[in-house]
UniProtKB/TrEMBL annotation:
<keyword id="KW-0808">Transferase</keyword>
<keyword id="KW-0489">Methyltransferase</keyword>
<dbReference type="GO" id="GO:0032259">
    <property type="term" value="P:methylation"/>
</dbReference>
<dbReference type="Pfam" id="PF13489">
    <property type="entry name" value="Methyltransf_23"/>
</dbReference>
<protein>
    <submittedName>
        <fullName>SAM-dependent methyltransferase</fullName>
    </submittedName>
</protein>
<dbReference type="InterPro" id="IPR029063">
    <property type="entry name" value="SAM-dependent_MTases_sf"/>
</dbReference>
<dbReference type="GO" id="GO:0008168">
    <property type="term" value="F:methyltransferase activity"/>
</dbReference>
C-alpha cells in the first residue's frame, strides 16, 4: 500500500501550505510577538551559542526568529524538500530527512529541541519513539519545546480534520503522559492566547479572558471542574 505521507509531503508546500497560508510580514510580526512572550523567557536561560535543533522546520519561520534573537548554532530538519529549499535560500543550516532517522543516527547532544506543529503528524506508537529519541538527544537540563493543536480547544475539530497528515491530537493531560513516560521531569504548558503588545492585542486578550470565564462556567456546570487552556493550540516546555 502506498504511504499517504510520501504522496502528500512530496508537494506539501506547493499544493497545500502555499494555497492556505499566504504569509505576510504582519503575520510574521504577530507570530514573533507570541514567541517573545511564550517561548523567549525559556530561551534566555541559554547562551547564544547553545546547540538548538528544530524538528519539522518547514520554510524556516522559527529559524528566522532565532537568528533575529542572536542564536547562532541552530539547525533544522524537514521531510519536505520544497520547504527545505525555502529555508536554505534564507541561509539556514537545514537538511531534508526523516526525524526518526536523523535522531537515531546523530551523535550530537542539543541544549534545546523544538517541535512546532509536528507531533500531531504521528501515531501514538511513533510519538512514544520520537519523545524517547528527543530525550536521548538532549543534554542534561535541556529543553524540549513543543507547539501542538489542542484536543480540548473550542474548535478542535477544525484542527484535527484540517490536514490529511494529522494522526494524533493531544491535550495537556495526554501530552504529560507521553513526556513523563519518556523521562521528562518538569513539564509546563502555556496557552497560545492573544498577546497584549498593541491596542488590538489588548482588546483581543480582554475578550479572550472574558470568553474563558464563560466557557469555564459552562464546564463547571457540566463536569464540576474547569480547564486552563482553551486555545486551538498550546505550547509545552519540558525539561530533561
Amino acid at each position: 500500500m502506498t504511504n499517504h505521507r510520501n504522496i502528500i509531503y512530496e508537494n506539501y508546500h506547493s499544493k497545500f501550505n502555499s494555497r492556505i497560508a499566504n504569509v505576510t510580514q504582519n503575520d510574521l510580526d504577530s507570530l514573533y510577538r507570541h514567541y517573545d512572550e511564550k517561548i523567549l523567557p525559556s530561551l534566555k536561560l541559554f547562551r547564544k551559542n547553545s546547540s538548538i535543533l528544530e524538528l519539522g522546520c518547514g520554510p524556516g519561520y522559527l529559524l528566522d526568529y532565532l537568528k533575529q534573537k542572536g542564536y547562532v548554532n541552530v539547525k533544522g530538519i524537514d521531510i519536505s524538500e520544497e520547504q527545505i529549499e525555502i529555508a536554505q535560500s534564507k541561509g539556514h543550516n537545514v537538511s531534508v530527512g526523516d526525524v526518526f532517522v536523523y535522531l537515531k543516527n546523530s551523535t550530537e547532544k542539543f541544549d534545546v529541541i523544538f517541535a512546532f506543529d509536528l507531533l500531531e503528524h504521528f501515531t501514538k506508537d511513533e510519538l512514544l519513539e520520537l519523545t524517547e529519541l528527543v530525550h536521548y538527544s538532549l543534554r542534561e537540563e535541556g529543553l524540549f519545546l513543543i507547539r501542538t493543536p489542542n484536543g480540548q480547544g473550542i474548535f478542535a475539530g477544525q484542527i484535527i480534520y484540517g490536514d490529511l497528515t494529522h494522526q494524533t491530537i493531544l491535550n495537556p493531560n495526554s501530552l504529560t503522559q507521553l513526556l513523563a513516560i519518556n523521562g521528562f521531569k518538569e513539564i509546563k504548558f502555556i496557552e497560545n492566547s492573544p498577546v497584549g503588545k498593541n491596542l488590538f492585542g489588548i482588546l483581543r486578550l480582554f475578550l479572550w479572558k472574558s470568553l474563558k470565564l464563560f466557557l469555564n462556567f459552562m464546564k463547571i456546570i457540566e463536569s464540576g471542574g474547569k480547564q486552563d487552556i482553551w486555545t486551538h493550540d498550546f505550547f509545552c516546555i519540558a525539561k530533561k
